[in-house]
Amino acid sequence: MESQVQENRFFLSFSYKSVSMYTYRLIGGVKVPKEGCPFGDYLKGLIKANGMTQSEFYTALGIKKPYFYDIVSGRVNPPPYSLQFKAMEILNADEQTRELFFDMAAQGRKELPADIAQIVTDNPVVLANIRKNIKLLTQGR
Predict the structure, then answer these.
(1) What is the pLDDT of residues 81-119, one digit of tens each?
(2) Half-sphere exposure of 23 (CA within 13 A, CB side)
(3) How far apart (Å, rounded) are the C-alpha atoms in residues 126 and 119?
(4) What is the value of pTM for the model shown?
């Protein structure tokens, strides 16, 4: 059965001068951003949607203003796992938002998503199962 793909537009950052707009696809009810949606813009949109100022957010996160602006501008990679989890807690993010945030951060950091890495780290059986499945997949080649 094919998944229905629906394209929508969502606004991530707002200012009196411009609105940054990116597109996403809905696949099975899950938002999947298209290529080109910067992590920093997504984060700024989450902060604004939560009714916080950027200053309130980076202060609650426990980071300095220059580091925060380096993250949202893309000058540095998205924050490490511990700050990703804290950010989602501060923003009271729902599961779908958390997953998208972790996926986008992982892409920028070239790592596993934080939630997946935590599960693998905390559950050795999961790691063993992943290795087992990789072996099964590679044997069929």
Answers:
(1) 999 999 999 999 999 889 989 999 999 999 999 999 999
(2) 7
(3) 8
(4) 0.73
